[in-house]
Amino acid sequence: CEEEKEDLKHFLLWCPAYSEERKKNLRLQQPYEEEEENIIGKFLFDNIKIEEAKEVIYEFWQIREKERKNKT
């Protein structure tokens, strides 16, 4: 999105490019700042919902790739 540093926290919790996909997943609703690391950890490493996390990350990646291709 080129709005700020694209680190994992920005990618999963804050990037406006993924806001519509994020709304579909309650675990990724925008948290208070002090909860960010805990939410990311649970999202990525909760063995019960690991397939869900994979699907969400894949959807984000597809959106990112589509936007990247549109810019070139």
Tags for this entry?
single chain; 72 residues; mainly alpha; 4 helices; 61% helix; globular
What does this structure look like?
The chain is mostly helical. The chain is built from 4 helices and no strands. The chain has helices spanning 8-14, 19-23, 36-45, 50-71. The model has no long low-confidence stretch (mean pLDDT 85).
Brief overview, please?
The protein has 72 residues and is mainly α. The protein is 61% helix and 0% strand.
List the helices and strands and how they pair.
Blueprint: H1 8-14, H2 19-23, H3 36-45, H4 50-71
Strand-pairing-aware structural class? mainly alpha
Helix content: 55-70%
Which percent range describes the beta-strand content? under 5%
Q: How would you sum up the major sheet? A: none
Q: Got a strand count?
A: 0
